[in-house]
Amino acid sequence: MSPPNIIASCKQTRFHLQDDKPSHEIDVEGLDILVKSAPETDSLSKMKPKGSAKAKAKGKELITDAHLRLKAGVHYGLIGRNGTGKSTLLKAMAEKLIPGIPHATRIAILQQSDHQFDQDASSNIDVESENLGRPGDKTVLEHVMSGDRSRNDILHRVNFLSKSFEADEPLAPVRAIRKIRHDQLKNQLFLSQKNASLKSGSRGFQARKDLKSVEAKVQASLGQLEMPKEDIDAETVKLDTQEAIETLQDLQSQVESMKLVDVKQQACQILIGLGFRETDFSKPFSTLSGGWRMRCTLASVLIQNPDVMILDEPTNFLDLLGVVWLEKYLQKLRELSETTIVLVSHDRDFVNAVCEEIIILRDQKLSYFRGNLSAFEKDFEAQKLYWGRMKEAQEQKVAHMEATVRDAMKIGKKTNDDNKLRMAKSRQRKIDERMGVQVSASGGKFKLNRDLAGWHSNKRAEIEVPTDEKGTVLIIPDATELRFPGPLASLESVSFRYKADATCTLNDINLVIHMGDRVGIMGLNGSGKTTLIRLLAGDMLPSKGTATTHPRLKVGYYSQHMVDELQEQGRAKPEVTALALMTNETEGSFSEGDLRGLLSALGLQGRTASDVPISKLSGGQLVRLALARIVWSSPQLLILDEISTHLDFHTVTALASALSSFNGAILLVSHDRFLIRSVVEGKRDIDHKMDDYFEGIDEESEETQNRRRAVFVMKAGRLHEQQNGVEQFEESLVKRIQKMPSPFDKM
């Protein structure tokens, strides 16, 4: 399946694409982004909209006439519903598909898959190096070190030129410097082609002239590169050799100024912070699992010093220690670096801690708020209340004035009273022209000659009350009643080891879950959480101890790999839809109408459920489908392993509300502090507004007020209950991070 073709355009100025200096700031007005299902051509010449071609471009519009504005050194949180185009916008920025982004601006990006875009195609010099090989041949440490392209390009040139002087062939330095010159011209050609394809009018004419000039230089350079050695005269050899010496000296001075010795140490410290052990550094990158590859790729992004760093869901594969470490790292980076960061994450606490400004992608527009996510949500509620009250008061005033107008008109016509008729017309004109926003942009009283100066229609802007951007409310079916009471599941002195001579993964575990209980399990990766829940789900038997379940227990088990499994099914059977899959799995237990109702309650409505193949569903939609697969039988126990991955934080809030009102028991394994606090501890988050459907401790009825709520941490194969819940575990991790060596110590 071909990747979608992104078409980006904006209001261009004479400076776009002509500034060869990198910039930490981006300021693009009139930004339009649309995607097509498949690219028509790979040619850069197709990028230019001619005449009305822009208007005729067919595709899905994601962003229309928006203003993309990034200030140097500011950490931004990009928020918006799933499917609004956040990842597409980030990709367009990283690939510099947006004309207004200076081509020399260095952009590093971490995406939601382990495939990384070519972050800066123009800076890649195609020279040989003994350090280069296939990505699969690199060790973990080498993969991280290779992340900084600008630094590696310099190293590659140094190695390439040094080898040429060590060679027995006298013309080797000449060939080397010509090769470097040719690659630099090819990069210049790439920029000139892009510039010519995006310019029109007189600037386009000049850009095309420049392109022809660069093309001629590339051809001449290629001729020099392929010139037989007998045709190269002695004077040319002398000049090129001298240029090679000077270039090598300049590059070596740049290497010394980079403090490359410290870079390796910094890379090691970042890897340790992200959960790697020193023994992992020499492992081949190709042998890592998907989650550890993403951590390694994240480290390769953090090791760079780009102008703009883009992080798309960086916490997806991190445990809480890694999340808290990354929080502290990015907070320190804000103090010591001018790097601009654009961050997308479903983890509310993480966004709140790292970001100082919020970018809101909504209704195909970009808006900005100065403050973190918590401040944005509080301000939004305050604005909604303020404008709502103003509109309500004005509607009452207008209703009263309209009534007086009707009465005056009626009396005036009946008595032929011209004064009454003039008064009625005057008041009607006031209703038509002076109703609307009553405050200026600065918050003071609105004055027509000051705040609406120049030509205008005499009408003030209509009062618009901000509306909540709520996603589909998730509804989870109630659990089936049990015919007789008793614990749903219990582990008594359970131990487990995968091999007879192996160390115990679980050691002396005692856990009992009753109907209505809320149990949260946190811990570092590899501590045994997944093994524990597989024992509870009945997928494995303990090596020692007793695991029992209620005779009539039905378990709904959400594995953290369920989205991957659905994606594989979608690739194997491209025509299968969510409705077809559920029909097959329920084996006729539900009618089509019942299944549609279930899928709709979980956010897969109408044609999305019946017509869209699974292979084309987003990650968030696949999570909803996976939920439907485990709740259709109305289980009494829900075991959820990292369910918030792939969801935006709006949907995480809806999920927390749905789980809070579930009448069965919930065992939640998650690194998301917000989700554990709300679902397990039943707390309304003081920093983030919960929706009206949330049922926490304060809303518990007499039937549920005695339900058990417990947060455990899995450590060294044992369960440790946290009396202060998530907060206690987080404090212990912060203390642990403070003892780690900082990557910034020698910066």
Automatic annotation (TrEMBL):
<dbReference type="GO" id="GO:0016887">
    <property type="term" value="F:ATP hydrolysis activity"/>
</dbReference>
<keyword id="KW-0547">Nucleotide-binding</keyword>
<keyword id="KW-0677">Repeat</keyword>
<dbReference type="GO" id="GO:0005524">
    <property type="term" value="F:ATP binding"/>
</dbReference>
<protein>
    <submittedName>
        <fullName>P-loop containing nucleoside triphosphate hydrolase protein</fullName>
    </submittedName>
</protein>
<keyword id="KW-0378">Hydrolase</keyword>
<dbReference type="InterPro" id="IPR032781">
    <property type="entry name" value="ABC_tran_Xtn"/>
</dbReference>
<feature type="domain" description="ABC transporter">
    <location>
        <begin position="489"/>
        <end position="713"/>
    </location>
</feature>
<keyword id="KW-0067">ATP-binding</keyword>
<dbReference type="Pfam" id="PF00005">
    <property type="entry name" value="ABC_tran"/>
</dbReference>
<dbReference type="InterPro" id="IPR027417">
    <property type="entry name" value="P-loop_NTPase"/>
</dbReference>
<feature type="domain" description="ABC transporter">
    <location>
        <begin position="47"/>
        <end position="388"/>
    </location>
</feature>
<dbReference type="InterPro" id="IPR050611">
    <property type="entry name" value="ABCF"/>
</dbReference>
<dbReference type="Pfam" id="PF12848">
    <property type="entry name" value="ABC_tran_Xtn"/>
</dbReference>
<dbReference type="InterPro" id="IPR003439">
    <property type="entry name" value="ABC_transporter-like_ATP-bd"/>
</dbReference>
<dbReference type="InterPro" id="IPR017871">
    <property type="entry name" value="ABC_transporter-like_CS"/>
</dbReference>
<dbReference type="InterPro" id="IPR003593">
    <property type="entry name" value="AAA+_ATPase"/>
</dbReference>
<dbReference type="GO" id="GO:0016020">
    <property type="term" value="C:membrane"/>
</dbReference>
